[in-house]
Amino acid sequence: MERKEVGFESGGERCAAWLYPSPPAATSPAIVMAHGLTGTRRDRLGAFAKRFAQAGIAALVFDHRGFGDSEGEPDLFEPRRQLEDWAAAIAHVRSLDGVDPARVATFGSSMGGGNALAAAAADPEVAAAVSQVPFLTMRQAHRSPLRVQARMIAAAIRGRHLPALGQPGDAAFINAPGGKAGWQHVVAIGEDSRWRDRASSRWLLASPFTFNYVRHARRLHCPWLVCVGEADRVAAPGIAIRAARRAPLGELRTYPGVDHFDIYDGPEHEAVVADEIEFLQRHLQVSPDSSWCSAYRATLLWWPLPIRFHFVLVLMVGVLWRTLPVSGGLPEPRLLARRLPRRPSASGGGRGSPRRLRSSRTIPSTARSAIA
Questions:
Q1: How far is C-alpha 10 from the geometric centre of its chain's CA atoms?
Q2: Are strands 128-132 and 28-34 parallel, antiparallel or unpaired?
Q3: What pLDDT is attached to residue 320?
Q4: CB 245 within 8 A of CB 218
Q5: Cα–Cα distance list, 18 to 5, 110, 125, 222, 372 (Å)
Q6: Low-confidence stretches of the chain (pLDDT beneath 70)
Q7: pLDDT confidence of residue 360
Q8: What is residue 304's predicted lDDT score, i.e. its pLDDT?
Q9: How far lies 231's CA from each of 37, 188, 214, 260, 262, in Å?
Q10: Distances (CA, A) of 152 to 79, 119, 225
Q11: What pLDDT shows up at residue 310?
């Protein structure tokens, strides 16, 4: 089914959102999704939402107030304000027809991963949470030189805006090596992105206290999937790994050689989204086969009656062909359909076989990152 343009109210202002409906069913689970800092729904979140919907999980992807297509003071970033938007988004998705309000999950990327954790911790009815390449606390930030930190604090005191992106040594929120080029690539492969390279900075003055969501991990009531790039230079991976291990129902996936912005396309994206779908289907009680069956039923209902009749007839003939013996001495078709044994590979896996992901207890000492 096609996504829908929707919206909801938060603090008297409208947040823009996309709804990706799941295949028709009595009721389905849903997941609330958003980026972090200045990121918007158009910056490759749709690629994740579409896959979740195909797997039987309706997805609501929204822009925070002041960013993307939402109303509000442009580029005003405040952690508390964004969590208000998350609470409003969760309430909205629970009110939708066809959504089971007891099976709602949160999903966030980078700083949005911290928001997804905090929003789940604040709502005991949230069923699961997913944080990918998560930025959970300011202690994960890239260690800029003191002169750069002083310039950023001075801008915060004066209430000025700072660039979202910069090179190492620039007074910008994301100034880790490779961070600027990585995010620019995400924006380039997005959907007519409305992203702007600026955000308010006054929140930095209280950020050690207002953005310290790692504290929620130990008492989180629901299953929490944490997807960490081991080579992340934007959100230092060590703190997120330890938080996942402290969470009562935490599940950790680490990806060797994967940097902060590598997960939005290519094989890294496929590996991460496969882990997320498996986690969500398991904890939101979605049968892996039910979503496909529902999709096929929905497709059949749209076909004209004569086409449906012929389609069912062909299926019946196929079933008979596979179950009845054929005259003339030919073997049964069931025997012809046997699979040949797979030829062993010297490397232990065939060409294009997926990488096995592992959880590591050691974090490279060079892993340092900035805000995402």
A1: 22
A2: unpaired
A3: 60
A4: no
A5: 5, 20, 23, 25, 22
A6: 288-372
A7: 43
A8: 56
A9: 21, 22, 20, 8, 10
A10: 17, 28, 33
A11: 61
Q: Which residues does residue 129 pair with via DSSP β-bridges, in sequence order?
A: 106, 224
Query: For residues 171 and 165, what is the distance between their CA atoms, to the nearest angstrom?
Result: 9
Task: Supply the pLDDT for residue 30.
Answer: 98
Q: What global pTM score does this model have?
A: 0.79
Mean per-residue pLDDT of the chain = 85
Nearest Cα residue to 139 out of 35, 214, 199: 214
Between CA 18 and CA 119 the distance in angstroms is 19
Tokens of 218: 């130990």
The per-residue pLDDT for 24 is: 81
Give the C-alpha distances (Å, rounded to integers) separating 283 from 120, 127, 333, 350.
14, 8, 40, 31
Q: At 214, give phi and psi (nearest 5°).
A: -60, -20
Rounded Cα distance, 217 and 77, in Å: 23
d(CA 296, CA 23): 9
* 3-state per-residue secondary structure call for the chain: CCCEEEEEEECCEEEEEEEECCCCCCCEEEEEEECCCCCCCCCCHHHHHHHHHHCCCEEEEECCCCCCCCCCCCCCCCHHHHHHHHHHHHHHHHCCCCEEEEEEEEEEECHHHHHHHHHHHHCCCCCEEEEECCCCEHHHCCCCCHHHHHHHHHHHHCCCEECCECCCCCCCCECCCCHHHHHHHHHHCCCCCCCCCCEECHHHHHHHHHCEHHHHHHHCCCCEEEEEECCCCCCCHHHHHHHHHHCCCEEEEEECCCCCCHHHCHHHHHHHHHHHHHHHHHHCCCCCCHHHHHHHHHHHHHCCHHHHHHHHHHHHHHHHHHHCCCCCCCCCHHHHCCCCCCCCCCCCCCCCCCCCCCCCCCCCCCCCCCCC
Provide the β-strand partners of residue 30. 58, 104
Count the neighbouring beta carbons within 10 Å of the beta carbon of residue 7: 17
| One-letter amino acid for residue 259 of the chain | D
